[in-house]
Design goal:
Length: 271
């Protein structure tokens, strides 16, 4: 049985302060950006039908089958898979080098909104609307069909394109409920595949393979009324020598308590 944690959720950093700080840094670095990392490309959220967010840990044995399942699903061009490694397994003695406390905070926020109780790993949140155990590929496919992107009240669209070393994102939202917070635009940086050799400790000498582990995620701003358009240098987002890197943009509804709600649209590029 997966690990459980009864700790209460923490509120994530203010979305506006994160967006302003990041965009200021992006503006300063744009002039010094190196040549393009790849040919110019463009993608749209119209081509994505599902987002699977796996909450996992390298120390969790039951997480490995779930990681393999979402890894297979993530090879489909219309599915975005993001593996958030949590830090509450570190007490076992092996510190997951991919873990981040902010990933744990995101899982806690989902648990509170979806009324899931204690945290469990592995856990897959489907399109921000339903949580499953993660190792049943058929159940995940069924959940994506039953809980599509968007919601009964709102929908949205994201367009991502590269031009030289610049990444351009355009996001728009329609609908929504009066008095509710506008949806937020989240940018997630992830690796396609990471191998980790575990020396000595459990599991001794093994090479762990993780698919689509999240390296960083940040809230770029709110999408309220008119579409928003952002530009930032790829050199700040895509590192050298770490294998293939992905950038996923999520347009996500939020509740009055700022907890993450249904994902309205998503798009992703890999380099």
């Amino acid at each position: 049985m997966g690990h459980r944690s009864g700790r209460e959720p923490n509120l994530v950093t203010s979305r506006r302060s994160v967006a302003l700080g990041f965009l200021s840094l992006a503006g300063l670095a744009l002039a010094a950006a190196p040549p393009a990392l790849a040919g110019d490309r463009s993608v749209s959220s119209r081509d994505v039908r599902g987002v699977l967010e796996l909450f996992t840990s390298q120390s969790c044995r039951e997480c490995r089958p779930a990681g393999a399942v979402v890894g297979r699903l993530g090879t489909a061009p219309d599915i975005v898979v993001l593996a958030y490694h949590v830090d509450y397994w570190d007490y076992t003695g092996w510190r997951d080098k991919l873990a981040d406390r902010r990933n744990t905070a995101r899982q806690k926020a989902y648990a509170k909104r979806l009324k899931l109780g204690a945290l469990v790993t592995p856990q897959v949140v489907v399109n921000g609307r339903q949580a499953l155990g993660g190792a049943d590929e058929r159940a995940l496919a069924q959940a994506m069909a039953e809980t599509p992107l968007g919601s009964a009240q709102a929908a949205g669209e994201i367009r991502m394109r590269t031009q030289g070393d610049a990444l351009h994102i355009r996001a728009s939202a329609t609908g929504g409920e009066a008095g509710r917070s506008p949806p937020i635009l989240v940018l997630v940086t992830y690796s396609e595949r990471v191998e980790t050799v575990v020396p000595g400790a459990m599991p001794a000498g093994r090479t762990l393979i993780d698919h689509f582990p999240v390296r960083d995620w940040r809230i770029l701003g709110s999408v309220d009324g008119a579409p928003i358009e952002l530009e930032m240098p790829l050199s700040l987002l895509v590192g050298d020598g770490d294998g293939r890197t992905g950038l996923a943009a999520l347009l996500q509804a939020v509740g009055a308590d700022n907890k993450p709600g249904p994902i309205l649209a998503a798009a992703a590029l890999e380099f």
